[in-house]
Amino acid sequence: MKVFIAGASGGIGGYLADRLSACHEVFGSYRSRAPVADIQYQMDKVDIGSGEEVARWISMNACEDDDLALIYCVGVNYNCMMHKAESDKWEEVVDANLFGVQRVLRQIIPLMRKRRFGRIILFSSVVPQMGVMGTSAYAASKSALWGLSKAVAKENASFGITINTLNLGYFDIGMIEDVPDNVLEKIIEEIPMKMLGDPGNIFNAVDFLLKSDYVTGSCVGINGGLV
Ligand SMILES: NC(=O)c1ccc[n+]([C@@H]2O[C@H](COP(=O)([O-])OP(=O)(O)OC[C@H]3O[C@@H](n4cnc5c(N)ncnc54)[C@H](OP(=O)(O)O)[C@@H]3O)[C@@H](O)[C@H]2O)c1
User: Fold this and answer.
1) How confident is the model at residue 80 (pLDDT cuts 50, 70, 90)?
2) Which of the residues are catalytic?
3) 73 CA to middle of ligand 1, Å?
4) Phi-psi category of 139—alpha, beta or left, where left has phi over 0 and alpha has psi -120 to 50?
5) Is the pLDDT of residue 161 over 90?
6) How far is the CA of 76 from the centre of ligand 1 (A)?
7) DSSP secondary structure letters along 125-186
8) Which ligand 1 atom is the nearest neighbour of the CA of 171?
9) Residue 180 above 90 pLDDT?
């Protein structure tokens, strides 16, 4: 299978790209963090805000004869109270987390439909489930993915295409590294399992969804019992 990972320069995307490249052909994208040496997969620079760059990334590497998967790991947060938020920063978050999904799906779904096979995995979060101060843009964009995936699941079920969303809790990788230690301690205290998640749990869910042909439109929570 050809597995496209948008945001493979990030913590989770990079981890999945490393592990999935052992048994799949992986095509990752990055924006600002250049690929490190010794990786076993292809990396292309793609600004997810540009429909042209996204179209080039997909058309350069995929065709209708390929079994294709998309794992969308792009994600940004903007920590600010709603009434104080700057519009351009708020919109930047929604653009990367939600509109970027639309830009990739409109390129890759037509190829999947011709092949009558496809796997799509999106990343949402416990944040919109819990309600967390200062995360209005992030929560709005991440909860939108639930409705989007339900609709896309129904549109494409008869074409052998599945789409599912992983609702992640707090993991010991990626964007969590920006969280100050004192905040992190409080987060861990709230998690019933009293620890951050091991990314191996994300890999297990992704591997299951890539292999399943009867799971679609689902949201899978991986959160240590948080919600
Ligand atoms: N880590 C967690 O505990 C956690 C919890 C809940 C949900 N999630 C979700 O899981 C996904 C992966 O998170 P992560 O922790 O791996 O985040 P991360 O390490 O911050 O990585 C984010 C990725 O998004 C890319 N990106 C951001 N804006 C972009 C743009 N405009 N165009 C192209 N690429 C862009 C970054 O590229 P560059 O670095 O190259 O700029 C990077 O590859 C995200 O959707 C996140 O919301 C993570």
Assistant:
1) very high
2) 138
3) 6
4) alpha
5) yes
6) 6
7) ESHHHH--TTBHHHHHHHHHHHHHHHHHHHHHGGGTEEEEEEEE--BSSGGGGGS-HHHHHH
8) 3
9) yes
Question: Residues 129-134: what's their mean pLDDT?
Answer: 97
CA of 50 to the centre of ligand 1 (A): 17
For atom 15 of ligand 1, the residue with the nearest CA is 174
Domain limits of the chain?
2-222
Q: Which of 27, 175, 176 to mutate to test the pocket of ligand 1 (most atoms within 8 A of CB)?
A: 175
Q: What is the C-alpha to C-alpha distance for residues 190 and 59, in angstroms, rounded to an integer?
A: 44
Does the structure show a pLDDT above 90 at 36? no
Confidence of residue 153 (pLDDT cuts 50, 70, 90): very high
Percent of the chain with pLDDT over 70: 100
Q: Which residues line ligand 1 (CB under 6 A)?
A: 7, 9-13, 30-33, 46-49, 73-76, 96, 123, 125, 168, 170-171, 173-176
The average pLDDT across 30-59 equals 96
Residue bearing tokens 């998640």: 197
Check: CB of residue 137 under 8 Å from CB of residue 85. yes
Question: Does 37 have pLDDT greater than 90?
Answer: no
| CATH number of 2-222, picked from 3.40.50.720, 3.40.190.10, 3.40.47.10, 3.10.180.10 | 3.40.50.720
